[in-house]
Amino acid sequence: MIKVLILLGIIYSFSQAVSGENIVNLYGCMECHGIKKGKTAPAFIDISKSAKQKRIEQSIKNGSQGKYKNFKQNIMPEFEYFTNQELKEISTWILSMKKNEE
Fold first, then answer.
1. Is residue 57 within 8 Å of residue 89, measured between CB atoms?
2. Alpha helices, DSSP H, located in 18-83
3. Does residue 92 sit within a domain?
4. Were both Cys, which of 12, 13, 26, 42 would link to 68 (CB 3.0–4.6 Å)?
5. Of 90, 61, 98, nearest in space to 76 by CA
6. What is this structure's pTM?
């Protein structure tokens, strides 16, 4: 029983450590997006100021184009492999930037 509780504690700790920021870094999102400055895609801080959580999640899952003035020609491909929990973690992390900016 103690081994099971320890194992559950380890699993819980690991699941809590997988934050939106960790997911973004793990999957290479920073190759196109920056935190405060856009690269070939808008900066996460700019996304946080103009998008709602559901829109962010849909843009990641389904792809998007033309939503940001300086990136109208660039296409964000769809990333269907993200789980709903990962999408929520990413979008929550992005939106937290707006709160930190205020």
1. no
2. 20-26, 44-50, 53-62
3. yes
4. 42
5. 61
6. 0.78
Element (H, E) at 101: helix 84-101
Q: Is 50 exceeded by the pLDDT of residue 5?
A: no
Q: Is residue 8 part of a domain?
A: no
pLDDT score recorded for residue 18 = 73
Decide if 23 contacts 86 (C-beta within 8 A): yes
Only one residue has tokens 């998008």, namely 51
| pLDDT tens digits along 14-55 | 554 579 999 999 999 999 999 999 999 999 999 999 999 999
Percentage of residues in the chain with pLDDT exceeding 90? Answer: 73
Write the CATH number for 28: 1.10.760.10
Maximum distance among all Cα pairs of the chain, rounded to whole angstroms: 57
